[in-house]
Design brief:
heterodimer, A: mainly beta, seven-stranded mixed beta sheet, B: mainly beta, six-stranded mixed beta sheet, four-stranded antiparallel beta sheet
Chain lengths: 114, 116
């Protein structure tokens, strides 16, 4: 009965490198959401995906950020050419249906850009 | 646009006492959802309680209750009989109505410290 899993839990990158964050939703969940938490802030919505489809990416920066949720395997949030401002905690949530009260969050990935 | 305000950066409470964490919200939509999440020092986000805008009764979950005052646009979290393990950040969040109801908006949080 595993919950939402994210890896790695901590990721350190130098400026200009790529960061790949992985999220495995709860078993049977096909809706995935990514949120970002900057230091001393609440979480902010980035993107909502279903299997093989991006449904809503209105909260994701237009450049350097991309997300996917393939038919097989985890959802990936990819940040290219990271900058110091990308340092944050990135949370993934999943749901069975599309209702906010059933979003279950993973433990988060803490990205530090040196 | 929706907005959540948590005006208390930090709160202290004695073990076994009750504490209220404030949350006010701003929205022009008549239909919305309100949530509280707990984030312990380990970092995970734990769902605590949910209140729908049309729910007649205040939501309760064990020692957590949500004091929902619609006219004042407030959704305060009440924790009864505080325990040391309640020490954590607490976030109030809101969902819009309709097709985008998955898009939670969070406040900046309140750091609760429970003293022995």
């Amino acid at each position: 009965n595993a919950g939402v899993m994210q890896n790695p839990r901590h990721l350190v990158r130098r400026r200009g490198q790529e960061a790949r964050l992985r999220c495995s939703p709860m078993k049977g969940h096909s809706h995935v959401y990514w949120y970002r938490q900057l230091p001393e802030e609440g979480l902010k919505f980035m993107v909502y995906l279903q299997k093989e489809n991006i449904i809503d990416e209105s909260g994701m920066p237009k450049e350097r950020f991309s997300a996917e949720f393939p038919k097989e395997g985890p959802s990936i949030l990819r940040i290219q050419q990271v900058v110091r401002g990308d340092s944050a905690a990135y949370f993934c949530a999943s749901s069975l249906g599309v209702k906010a009260d059933t979003q279950y969050f993973g433990p988060g990935t803490r990205l530090t850009v040196l | 646009a929706q907005k959540i305000t948590q005006t208390q950066p930090g709160m202290f409470v004695q073990e076994k006492e009750a504490v209220t964490l404030d949350c006010t919200y701003d929205t022009s939509d008549p239909s919305y959802g309100l949530f509280w999440y707990k984030q312990p020092s380990s970092g995970e986000m734990i769902f605590l309680i949910y209140q729908g805008s049309y729910d007649q009764q205040n939501a309760t979950e064990g020692r957590y209750s949500l004091n929902f005052q619609k006219a004042r646009k407030s959704a305060n979290l009440v924790i009864s009989a505080s325990q040391l393990g309640d020490s954590a950040m607490y976030f109030c969040a809101m969902s819009p109505p309709g097709r985008s109801n998955y898009k939670l908006t969070f406040g900046k949080g309140t750091l609760l410290t429970v003293n022995p």
